[in-house]
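Run log, item B.
One chain of 211 residues. Sequence copied directly from the ordering sheet:
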Amino acid sequence: MLVDTEKDGGYTIEIHTDEDAGNPRKEWDNAGTMLCMHSRYDLGDERNVTVEAIQEIIEREDVLYLPLYLYDHSGITMRTGPFSCPWDSGQVGIIYITKERAIQEFGGKRFTETVKKQALSCLESEVKVYDAFLTGSVYGYNVLDPAGESIDSCWGFYETNNEDMAYMLSQAKAAIQHDREKRAKARAQRRADSAERRIRDTMAQGMVGAV
């Protein structure tokens, strides 16, 4: 669905929602593991998770985790902190990573405070990406040239902050710049070819006159 357009000279950047966005918990290689319980929604990485299983993970000393809260009202949204409405929201699970996996992911030979901060930040980012999927905040662009022909498109931009959308636009504008340079090069080549033909024609005429 087209949600916005932006002009860049004679070019148009169309912003669309990505109707075929992939589920990052099913299709991506994530550092964290997301365990969720809900009677109506298939959430997270594993199904049929029990309270006992989650409690067992929380009590392990070799694990870092963040709680997961879901707000369900005309759609669902997820985050690691509670929502203000107690009736339509509540905790649905956790996202966790083992300390051993954190060391593997973020370098070093031992679990340090720096590794801990990086691991927790990673878990937070994974939740934001998943929330973008749940809320339909995944986009793509289509670039139209001055004639209205599509010259480039790309999909799968998950909006977790303003920088994500800015990056998407930067990619679209890079495609426009590439097309401008390609067209300018083609025009220069045509001028060079035309000049070469005129020179050849002039030389040919001179040779005929000499004969």
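Observations after the first pass:
- The mean pLDDT is 92.
- Residues 141-210 form one domain.
Flagged for discussion on Thursday.
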